[in-house]
UniProtKB/TrEMBL annotation:
Organism listed in the record: Rhizobium puerariae
Highest classification ranks of the organism: Bacteria, Pseudomonadati, Pseudomonadota, Alphaproteobacteria, Hyphomicrobiales
Alphabetical list of Pfam families matching this protein: HTH_30
Name of the molecule in the record: Helix-turn-helix domain-containing protein
Stored InterPro entries: CdaR-like_regulators, PucR_C-HTH_dom, PucR_C-HTH_sf
UniProt domain PucR C-terminal helix-turn-helix: residue ranges: 3-58
Length: 74
């Protein structure tokens, strides 16, 4: 789920670019994002919640070596 959310944030909330980057169908992306909401208790459509989720992704990248999966060529 982290890779999905991180990619979604990185792509500026673009469903088309995120799905293409993850090589999944857009419906699959929507299902994954709903799962993120369920697991975190945050709503992606809510500006405050999205900011917190985005910050969490950025902090994770910073403190886990700073390499995102789309940057590492995976």
């Amino acid at each position: 789920m982290h890779e999905t959310l991180s990619r979604y944030v990185h792509e500026g909330k673009s469903v088309a670019r995120t799905a293409k980057g993850l090589d999944i169908h857009s419906n699959t992306l929507y299902q994954r994002l709903q799962r993120v909401e369920t697991l975190t208790g945050r709503k992606i459509a809510d500006a405050t919640d999205f900011t917190l989720l985005s910050l969490a992704c950025q902090l994770h990248a910073e403190y886990s070596g700073g390499v995102s999966s789309w940057d590492s060529g995976r």
